[in-house]
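Exercise: predict the fold of this chain.
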Amino acid sequence: MAAGDSPRPCSGMRKLQKNGGALAAVLDEDDVAARPEPVPFHRAAVESVRPRREMVDDFTDDADTEAFLRASGRNRRIRRGLIPKTRNGWIIAGVSVGLSLAAVAAGCYTAMRYMTTSDTFRITSSQQMELDGNSHLSRAQMLSVFGEDVDRNIFHVPLQERRAQLEQMPWVEHATVMRLLPNRLRVHVTERVPVAYLRQGGDIGLIDATGVVLDIPPDAPGNARYTFPVITGIKAADAATSRQQKMQLFAAFLKDLDSDGKNTSAQLSEVDLSDPEDVKALIPYSNQDVMVHFGTQDFLKRFHKFQEHIAEWHTTYPRLSGVDMRYERQVVLQMPVKDSTVVNGPAAPDTTTAQSAAPAQKTTPIQVVKTNVPVRAATPAIKAPAASTPVKPTEPKPHASAATHKPSTKTQEKEAATRKRVEAIKAWMAKREKARSAAKATAKAE
């Protein structure tokens, strides 16, 4: 190799000289001429990021990718092989479905026939009937509804019909009947709660808060659960809505009387609900019952007013039989219809105003009108001596003979028997209250 030649062939360089151990190389003119001119550098504009959807589309459109997915089985389409495409396919599918349904129906029929005919599901005795919730009704009374179901398949017992029959019994408010496999019945009843005695002529029964008339259970005498007031004015033949409205009025009456916490309603002897616009109650005073008219509101307030003035009224009018407390500034005192102290004449002599004891009271004086017929407006007052002095010379004494008078008709005999029965119930209730009070006193002393 010559001294001026390039150390590497075809490199375009040749060695010129060597100075101080450093080599200098220059390009030949032909190489310099062949070298392209430098292009000025320009920053390429950054292409905006393509949406992901376009990238995916480009990716899926790639032939290589599609071939890869086809080879691996990941790009296969779902074949709709369940829908037949030929006539024979439709026939085969129809036959298959029919056979399947027939097999299911045959299985259901076999199971049902077994359950309705097998002795496993037969009620053999009344001991397989569980009764719950009955305290007034006996087991025999409830089982009388299920008498036809003994020795019957449990699936043949009409549950809805038995429930309706139970709820027709007066003491049953709600009933539930259910099957317990394989061969038992469970019956649960919710009984009505009596709130008062009901006197209908000569019959005495019980009544609940909705107006349903109930029979007196055999264990009622001497039972502490049956301490109720006696009400009248309701008949079993009345409409259910009418009886319910009267019992709602009765409940409001007792609630208002007992709102002071002193059990004021225990002082009532009998409550008359015959007039839905006027609650009347018999209140015992001085060995006789006084009929007090309370209206439909302010029951406790009117009762306190009655207690405050009854001694004064009874002193002035010993034959007092009724007091009408429905008016704000006057009280109507009612006398027996045959009382001779009432003068049967003009309206003015028939009414008197009594204020003899009013000045001694600290409360507001009440205008008192004495009459044998209730009035709504007070007549002009007469002098106090005429009101305070009873007319004794003209008063006969028919009441002594009335006590020994015997009823002559069947109606009067029935009423007398009813009164005796009610009095017997009252006496039993009073005796029981005394026994309870004595027991409480003994407990406190111990």
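Check your answer against the key: The chain is about 35% helix and 20% strand.
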